[in-house]
Specification:
Layout lengths: L1 H8 L3 E5 L4 E3 L7 E7 L2 E6 L5 E7 L4 E2 L1 H6 L6 E4 L3 E7 H9 L3 H23 L5 H33 L3 E10 L4 E13 L3 E3 L1 H10 L3 H23 L4 E6 L1 H5 L3 H10 L8 E6 L7 H13 L3 E6 L6 H6 L4 E4 L11 H16 L3 E4 L5 H9 L4 E2 L10 H12 L1
Parallel strand pairs: 10-12, 12-13, 13-14, 14-15, 15-16, 16-17
Antiparallel strand pairs: 1-8, 2-7, 3-6, 3-8, 4-5, 4-7, 9-10, 9-17, 10-11
Helix pairs in contact: 4-5, 7-9, 7-14
The structure holds ligand C2E and calcium ion (2 copies).
């Protein structure tokens, strides 16, 4: 059954040609790549003097035409059947969807290799008379791409090493109950203090960690930290606070995710209700699998927060199909709340929507008293932002809780 499905999705077509027939010509749009099943294929190009030169003769098992598929540029050479040939046709869709979902570093490196291939073919074609200026431009572009790829690779290896060497530190931003003005929990936000790069923004290193799957061990380590922080806060203040941790799409898609998280919580003295999982609206995927995951999380007792709601598709179907515990109103609706009527209407609607669907509402990015009062008067349950405190170290977070119980 599986095999059949696979075959239907990846329909491989065959093409049969006789000796001398053209498969494609230089300059054609490249929609297909080919694998030679039988016979031989000649790859050639024409010089400015109209002289055809053979670049290569390919045999059964060889693939050709894949360059144009990968980077979408026109064919840089022609292909003719040297004998009778049978080809397997590879469609653009098969290649494109794979490239689009590939790791960004891989994508860059692929482009670098492709550019190299193309400039080599170009040089062969124009022999001694190639256009220096156009080659210079290609070279510049090529060097820029290489530079970007190298930078990303460096950053990634710095991040891996930094993770091993404890350069990553969880910071804690208070979440305040707007009725009592007391801290009831914190959002855990990662910080990377690199000795060579300084303080690197999570906006940069989190996507990189995600694209390389480093986010999986990182997320597990962060949960360990969160659990021991809750235990320490309990010991020092006798308070049961919650921590809200951000879960990346890659983590949700990892099939061991929930199993590992449950086990860690079970091995601690922390209740699942004290670990809230913040999931971005855009990382939710449709389908059975996501639904089961959300249900399993809630069954175990992890409260789910839908983060940055309204900045993506604001897909109400998600709210209908998945049961969340909290809706987090994005800071873009809060930062100008006191001056902008539309923001006020949006906040009011989101708060109503949350309550109507049995969720609490939390607003992030509250920077002044006016914003806080408006949100409070609209019935928003929790607030977070510089007005209360920026994200702080664990030591400082404990101090903040202690000052409110004194
Ligand atoms: P986020 O989850 O939306 O986190 C809120 C961001 O708003 C944080 O930025 C926080 O420092 C910032 N912020 C808090 N209060 C205010 C305020 O009053 N005004 C303004 N202008 N900003 C405020 P940060 O720490 O730079 O984090 C950026 C993003 O990085 C986070 O956005 C989150 O998506 C991601 N991130 C951080 N730590 C983790 C992590 O451990 N795991 C995952 N998967 N993502 C993380
Ligand atoms: Ca968040
Ligand atoms: Ca957010």
């Amino acid at each position: 059954m599986m095999n059949q499905e696979y075959d239907i999705e990846n329909q491989f077509l065959n093409r049969t040609l006789t000796t001398g027939e053209c498969i494609f010509q230089e300059g054609d749009k490249g929609d297909f790549a080919y694998i030679i099943e039988q016979g031989e294929v000649e790859i050639s190009t024409v010089t400015p003097e109209n002289e055809r030169i053979i670049l290569n003769t390919l045999m059964p098992g060889d693939m050709f035409g894949e360059l144009a598929l990968v980077d979408g540029s026109p064919r840089s050479a022609s292909a003719y059947a040297k004998t009778n040939v049978v080809l397997t046709v590879v469609t653009g869709e098969q290649v494109k969807s794979r490239i689009e979902s590939a790791d960004p570093i891989l994508k860059l490196l692929l482009m670098v290799v492709m550019n190299y291939f193309r400039s080599e073919t170009g040089r062969l074609r124009s022999k001694s008379e190639f256009d220096i200026s156009s080659l210079d431009n290609t070279k510049k572009e090529y060097q820029e791409k290489i530079f970007q790829a190298i930078e990303l690779i460096r950053l990634e290896s710095d991040l891996r090493n930094g993770f091993k060497q404890n350069q990553l530190v969880p910071y804690y931003q208070p979440i305040v109950d707007l009725n009592t003005n007391l801290i009831v929990g914190f959002e855990v936000l990662l910080r990377w203090f690199s000795p060579t790069r300084g303080n690197v923004s999570p906006g940069i290193f989190i996507p990189l960690a995600e694209s390389t799957s480093l986010i999986i061990p990182m997320g597990e380590w962060l949960l360990d930290k969160a659990l021991s922080s809750i235990e320490l806060i309990k010991k020092e203040t006798n308070l049961d606070i919650f921590l809200s941790i951000n879960i990346a799409e890659k983590q949700i898609q990892n099939q061991d995710f929930l199993q590992v998280f449950k086990q860690k919580v079970n091995e601690s003295s922390v209740k699942p209700q004290q670990i809230k999982l913040e999931i971005l609206e855009r990382s939710l995927f449709e389908g059975e699998k996501a639904l089961t995951l959300v249900q399993d999380c809630r069954q175990f007792g992890f409260p789910l927060v839908i983060d940055d709601f309204g900045t993506g598709y604001a897909n109400l179907a998600y709210l209908k199909n998945f049961q969340f515990d909290t809706l987090k109103i994005d800071q873009c609706f809060v930062k100008d709340l006191e001056n902008n009527v539309k923001d006020k209407i949006i906040c009011k609607t989101l708060i109503h929507l949350s309550h109507g669907l049995n969720m609490t509402a939390v607003a992030e990015g509250i920077e002044n008293q006016e914003q806080c009062e408006i949100l409070s008067s609209l019935g928003c349950n929790y607030g977070q932002g510089y007005l209360f405190s920026p994200p702080v170290s664990f030591e400082r977070a404990i101090e903040l809780i202690k000052t409110q119980i004194e």
